[in-house]
Design brief:
binds s-citryldethia Coenzyme A; mainly alpha; Citrate_synth-like_sm_a-sub; 17 helices; transferase; 393 residues; Citrate synthase
């Protein structure tokens, strides 16, 4: 056997980065946005205030909040010609496919926020991304169900506007239920940022080359789509539906333990959290609250989810592997109860995470010393060798 030629780059990967935005302690199950615990923000704040906090580092005073809200509200519409992009997709295209395509194409419209060397253009790009992502996500949903697009209604709050754009139809009034709006706002807050997860690292790597912000966010959306990442909320609810009833849980637990079976319990486990995901705890409380307020009591899916969580938390295999419910375990139950199809779960994660992606993108580009990302490798391929002519092969 040819010796395996190994290349020692002489340094550890420089994938790690400095950031002042989000802090996670995986052992303590701690998540802080600019130092504020997620539990307190979920209880006392609202998504647009969290956007300000993540973007600018401090909680806004009343005047700052009003000005920020006005600015974001004034950017919620997308260029009218963007409507034509959607028509290029088959109706049954996954809304994530549409979002990747449309967001990537936004650089063709918003030329005055693509020069990343200009701090003002970076600021405008951030505002546009936060303001327009709900509109794009709602358009992707409307297109997938064959309904007309609904324009943003600036008299509504951020979460309410998104719900209105998704569920309103021209032929009748749609009044946003404040309970649903609060639940949606909380889901958005819980997903807003999460330090250097796969999709955020994708946005940073793309941004480090100087690519325009819309292309970078489109790359983040593409990465988030995977079932091991943001796609887990859709996969989790589909798994809960497949389990169907509490008595079938042991069959799936056994499959999750079987190394020969690729099946994993979706919504369980995490690269960083090894005791519990603080967001899952808040989400579980919200699930109970929303379903109760919606008068959905005998929700079989929620019953299966709670029993699955209980069994898994007592099962020595899962305890030994430190597998606990993550943010995606309960979110799908709430979103389904709100009327969303599973195909919209990850787009909602994407629109919620946009502020985290763009905040970290801005943070990185605001550092004059930042260089293009260049992860290295350990070479395990063939050693150097001479070309072999065809007859001698
Ligand atoms: C998100 O990074 C982030 O911050 C992501 C995120 C964010 O906000 O951006 O938090 C959002 O992506 C949450 C994760 C959503 N994904 C899922 O719920 C999919 C199901 N979970 C797994 O695919 C898995 O847990 C990962 C991908 C989340 C983590 O995978 P790892 O890194 O392989 O997990 P690990 O190293 O901690 O695994 C330890 C062991 C392994 O077994 P061994 O190889 O040691 O024998 O536990 C096993 C894994 O095979 N394992 C599971 C499992 N997750 C890990 N076994 C069954 N079911 C699972 N869900």
């Amino acid at each position: 056997d040819a010796d395996v030629f190994t290349y020692d780059p002489g340094f550890t990967s420089t994938a790690a980065t400095d950031s002042a935005i989000t802090y996670i302690d995986g052992d303590k199950g701690e998540l802080l946005y600019r130092g504020y615990p997620i539990e307190q923000l979920a209880d006392k704040s609202h998504y647009l205030e969290v956007c300000y906090l993540l973007l600018y580092g401090e909680l806004p005073n009343a005047q700052e909040m009003e000005q920020f809200e006005t600015t974001v509200t004034r950017h919620t519409m997308v260029h009218e010609q963007m409507h034509y992009f959607f028509r290029g997709f088959r109706r049954d295209a996954h809304p994530m496919a549409t979002m990747v395509g449309v967001v990537g194409a936004m650089s063709a419209f918003y030329h005055d926020s693509t020069d990343i060397s200009d701090p003002w253009q970076r600021e405008v790009a951030a505002i546009r991304m936060v303001a327009k992502m709900p509109t794009v996500a709602a358009m992707a949903y409307k297109y997938s169900i064959g309904q007309p697009f609904v324009y943003p209604k600036n008299s509504l709050d951020y979460a309410g506007n998104f719900l209105h754009m998704c569920f309103a139809v021209p032929c009748e009034d749609y009044v946003v239920d404040p309970i649903l709006s609060k639940a949606m706002d909380r889901i958005m807050m819980l997903h807003a940022d999460h330090e250097q997860n796969a999709s955020t690292s994708t946005v940073r790597l793309a941004g480090s080359s100087g690519a325009n912000p819309f292309a970078c966010i489109a790359a983040g959306i593409a990465c988030l789509w995977g079932p091991a990442h943001g796609g887990a909320n859709q996969a989790c609810l589909e798994m809960l539906r497949e389990i169907g009833t509490v008595d079938r849980i042991p069959e799936f637990i056994a499959r999750a333990k079987d190394k020969n079976d690729p099946f994993r319990l979706m919504g369980f486990g995490h690269r960083v959290y090894k005791n519990f995901d603080p967001r899952a705890k808040v989400m579980k409380e919200s699930a109970d609250e929303v379903l109760d307020l919606l008068g959905i009591h005998n929700n079989e899916t929620l019953k299966v989810a709670k029993e699955l969580e209980k069994i898994a938390l007592e099962d020595e295999y899962f305890v030994s592997k430190k597998l606990y419910p993550n943010v995606d375990f309960y979110s799908g139950i709430i979103l389904e109860a709100m009327g969303f199809p599973t195909s919209m779960f990850t787009p909602i994660f994407a629109l919620s995470r946009t502020v985290g992606w763009i905040s970290q993108w801005k943070e990185m580009l605001g550092d004059p010393t930042q260089k293009i990302g260049r992860p290295r490798q350990r070479y395990i391929g063939a050693p150097a060798r001479d070309y072999v002519e065809v007859p001698n092969r």
